[in-house]
Amino acid sequence: MAGRKERKIWGIGAAPGIAEGKAHVLDLRKTKFTKRYIPATQVKREIKRVQGAIEKSKADLVKIKDALGHEEINEHVYIFNSHLMILEDPMLLDAVTEMIFSERKNAEWALYTAFDNYKKMFDTIEDEYLRERKSDFDYLNTWILKHLSGSDEDSLQNIDEKVILFAHYLSPADAARMNREKIIGFVTDIGGSTSHTAILARALKIPAVVGAERASQLVSRGDRVILDGREGLIIVNPTRESATQYRERGLKYDHVEKALLKERDLPAETIDGRRISLTANVEMVEEVQAVREYGAEGIGLYRTEFLCLGQGRIPSEAEHFQVYKSVLEQMAPFPVTIRTFDFGSDKSPNINHLQKEMNPALGLRSIRYCLRETAIFKDQLRAILRASHYGKARILFPMISGLEELNRARDLFEEAKEEVAKKNQAFDPELEIGIMVEVPSAALIPDVLAKEVDFFSIGTNDLIQYCLAIDRVNKEVAYLYDPLHPSILRLLKMVVEAGHRQGIHVGMCGEMASDLRYIYILVGFGFDHLSMVGSMVPWIKKVVRSIDFQEARQLVETLLQGRDSAENERILSSWIQEKSPDIKEKVLSA
Ligand code: PEP
Ligand code: MG
Question: Spelled out in words, what is the top-level CATH class assigned to the domain 7-30+154-238?
Fold first, then answer.
């Protein structure tokens, strides 16, 4: 807009895509109130007002839930159920009633204080996912306040032109009932990428940025904005150059992605005929359908710990079973590699007996936890076994550091098998067992471990963390996190070669396998199988199909002589430039 300066606001990319349009600022906080003293004669009336407003809010939520309709969000009904549970919890009304009675304060204030107390309890919770649930209280508070003020206005439904929505907070219910013809993207001041609102934005494919701090105050209604949901960037009043640049970038990306999706059923095969299986990493059941659309040949890593992150409880065998069965059925006939719980470190299930540790990445994490809490582990093993009857399952043990741990895990697996068989429950007797190779001690004895398992899956996220001694979640040392470090390349070579000598499949499911540039190296090493973020599958397939395996082997030989990452980076860059200029221009830089 002429005369107005371009401004960039950064947040967290919650759902990818570029949207351009007019800003619409939704002030859900405009329901203002003051603290008032209530005379004894009005106490009953005040309590009735709250009861009525809570009842109306419940009815609203039920209506929204019943009207969901979209197939892709049916699985998210639990979000609305959890909101309803909060409203139905007698403790909420008790707390508000008590405050009105004893402190003689008005309903609005009592309600606000009750929700604020809930939020304070959540403040002390370490788990990021659970902490984010705090925003649900703000949302419910606003909703009830709206009814207390007698307003039935629905500001979201009143939008009648194409806009990018800005709000301090949007609830999952708001995201679910967004008219996608009108709302082409949204931005919230608070929230993280694991909030339910962000989950729904991804499921509904609405480009979104969350956690953009004061975005809803910095933007005015009608401002022209560009939103980049992958980068987490909002450009307000973009200059003509920025607008052109983003438009072109969006178009180029969409164009390349569309073309790649058309090729999703082609085999991931090098020019000289080496076939590699490309699968997806998933954290949640709701990702499974999209995985199929990207042309993945299965799930190479199902991070089951996400089932209970922040839940404060571990699922029962029956709950595990239902989820795994559903994933296997949806993916059939493709395989699903179910990794047993890998919590601890930055993935806390918030269970009381998991104490805070000084060095959580080196602590009671993952298989170590499972080998101690064998009842929990065996519930999961039995559930995987039973679910294996409904598709092609594989089991993957994380964080194995040596033979002892592997043997112990296998013993428990055998016990679980006997228990399932005793109950005459069906399972796949051929169920394959693999291990994550992600602890350097395991990577250094691959010949020993290869004799005991059906496959290896290298987890570079942890392998690099442990090998180079850098905390993978500490941004201060992030610059040291380098897959091209000669030590990492040597370990990869050892593991792949030992696996192949033993005749087992070797795959990779760490983030290194999602990086287009490293695919040349991974193909050269001879990986049989790569697992990655689902949306990357068509991109990686394109690169694989452009590679000559024999040439890639030579690249790896050269890299193995490299003395440091910088040298290896130079070798890789010039190799790509020389051998693959077309892919570099059209795919790598899209
Ligand atoms: C890894 O460590 O590379 C891996 C895939 O597992 P996670 O990222 O879940 O630790
Ligand atoms: Mg790992």
Answer: alpha beta
Kindly state the average pLDDT of the residues 325-336: 96
Query: Could you tell me which residues are beta bridge partners of residue 432?
Result: 394
As a whole number of angstroms, the distance between CA 315 and CA 94 comes to: 30
Write the pLDDT tens digit of every residue in 556-566: 999 999 999 99
Instruction: Please tell me the number of Cα atoms within 13 Å of 472 on its side-chain side.
Output: 20
Q: Which fold has domain 40-148?
A: Enzyme I; Chain A, domain 2 (1.10.274)
Q: Which atom of ligand 1 is nearest to the CA of 460?
A: 3
Q: In this predicted model, what pLDDT tens digit does every residue of 104-156 receive, in sequence order?
A: 888 888 998 888 888 777 777 766 666 666 777 877 888 888 788 766 556 77
This prediction has a pTM of: 0.69
Q: What is the mean pLDDT of the chain?
A: 87
Q: In sequence order, what are the beta bridge partners of 250? A: none
C-alpha of 205 from chain center: 14
Query: For ligand 1, is residue 322 a contact (CB within 6 Å)?
Result: no
459 in contact with ligand 1, CB cutoff 6 A: yes
Please give all residues whose CB falls under 5 A of ion ligand 2, grouped by chain where several chains appear: 438, 459, 462
Residue nearest to ligand 1 atom 8, measured at CA: 461
Residue 346 Cβ inside 6 Å of ligand 1? The answer reads: no
